[in-house]
Design brief:
This protein is mostly helical. The chain is about 55% helix and about 5% strand. The N and C termini lie far apart (about 50 Å).
C-alpha cells in the first residue's frame, strides 16, 4: 500500500489536470460539477460549468429560480433529469440546512440526485475529508493495480478508504481519477508510462488473462446505443421545450420520429413523470 501511495503521489504533482472545479472548495460548486460530470465527458462540462455557476452561484439562487430556468441552463450536458434533481436538492439544502451544504455522508445522500459516489466526492473535494471516491476511473485502478482482480462494490469502497493518506483526501482522490482517466484507461491502458507499474498487481502477472476491471464495482456496464433510442428522443424534446411549448400534435416531429406519434407521446409522458415537463391543455411545457 505504501508503495502505491508514494508512487501515485509523486506522479500526481506534475500530472494533475487543471480543471475549474479543482480551484474551489465551495461545496455547492463541487456538487454542481459532480452532477454535471455524471456520464458526461469532461470536455463538454468545462465550458458549461462556470456559465452555470454564474447564473446559479448558491443553493438559494437555484431554489428560488423556476426549474425551467435550470433546465435551460443545462443545455448541452445531456441527462436533463440531473438538472431537475439539482433544483430539488437546492430546495432541500435551503429548507433543511439553511442554504449550506451538509458535511456528513448521511445528510448528503438524502439530497435528491445525490448517491453514495457524489456524496463522497463532495466530502473529499469540498471538505477535504479522508474518504475514498470510487467511480469508473478510480475503480479501474483499484481492480487492476491494487487488487489484481474484480472487486465487489463494498470491497472496492473499503479498499479505497484504506488507501487515502492521512490528511490527503483531496489530492489523493484527484490523483486516482487522473490516473484512471489518462493512463489506466479502459481500452489500451498506458502501462509502460504508469507510475504504478512496479507495484501493480495486474502488471505482476504480465497483464495476462482477463482484465480485472471488467465487471468490477464502479466500472460500469456498456451503455446502450444512443442513436435512435428513447434517450435521443427525450433529449430532442427537451431541446425543443427550451425554445418554447410544444403542442401534442408536434411532439413526434420534435422528437425526431414524425411517423411514430405513439412513441413520442410515451416519451413525453416519461418527461412529465420525471419532472422535466408538464402537459397543459394538450401542450407540453417546461415546468414552472
Amino acid at each position: 500500500m505504501r508503495a502505491i501511495q508514494d508512487s501515485l503521489t509523486a506522479w500526481a504533482e506534475g500530472a494533475r489536470r487543471d480543471l475549474p472545479w479543482r480551484r474551489t472548495r465551495d461545496p455547492w460548486a463541487v456538487l454542481v460539477s459532480e452532477l454535471m460530470l455524471q456520464q458526461t465527458q469532461v470536455a463538454r462540462v468545462v465550458p458549461r460549468y462556470e456559465e452555470f455557476l454564474a447564473r446559479f452561484p448558491t443553493p438559494a439562487a437555484t431554489a428560488s429560480a423556476p426549474v425551467a430556468e435550470v433546465v435551460r441552463a443545462w443545455a448541452g450536458l445531456g441527462y436533463n433529469r440531473r438538472a431537475v434533481n439539482l433544483h430539488r436538492a437546492a430546495g432541500e439544502i435551503v429548507r433543511r440546512h439553511g442554504g449550506v451544504l451538509p458535511a456528513t455522508l448521511t445528510d448528503l445522500v438524502a439530497l435528491p440526485g445525490v448517491g453514495a459516489y457524489t456524496a463522497r466526492a463532495v466530502l473529499a473535494f469540498a471538505f477535504e475529508a479522508d474518504v475514498g471516491v470510487v467511480e469508473v476511473n478510480s475503480a479501474r485502478v483499484l481492480a487492476r493495480a491494487v487488487a489484481g482482480r474484480p472487486l465487489a462494490a463494498r470491497e472496492a469502497q473499503v479498499m479505497a478508504d484504506a488507501l487515502v493518506p492521512d490528511g490527503g483526501g483531496w489530492a489523493w482522490n484527484q490523483a486516482m481519477l487522473d490516473l484512471g482517466a489518462t493512463v489506466c484507461t479502459k481500452s489500451a491502458p498506458g502501462c509502460l508510462a504508469c507510475p504504478l507499474r512496479a507495484c501493480c498487481a495486474w502488471a505482476a502477472t504480465g497483464a495476462s488473462g482477463a482484465d480485472p476491471a471488467t465487471g468490477s464495482a464502479g466500472c460500469g456496464a456498456a451503455q446502450s446505443t444512443f442513436a435512435g433510442s428513447d434517450r435521443q428522443g427525450r433529449g430532442r424534446l427537451v431541446d425543443a421545450l427550451r425554445l418554447g411549448p410544444v403542442p401534442r400534435s408536434a411532439l413526434a416531429e420534435a422528437a425526431g420520429w414524425p411517423a411514430d406519434p405513439e412513441r413520442a407521446g410515451r416519451v413525453a409522458r416519461g418527461l412529465v413523470a420525471d419532472g422535466l415537463a408538464v402537459m397543459v391543455e394538450d401542450t407540453l411545457h417546461l415546468p414552472g
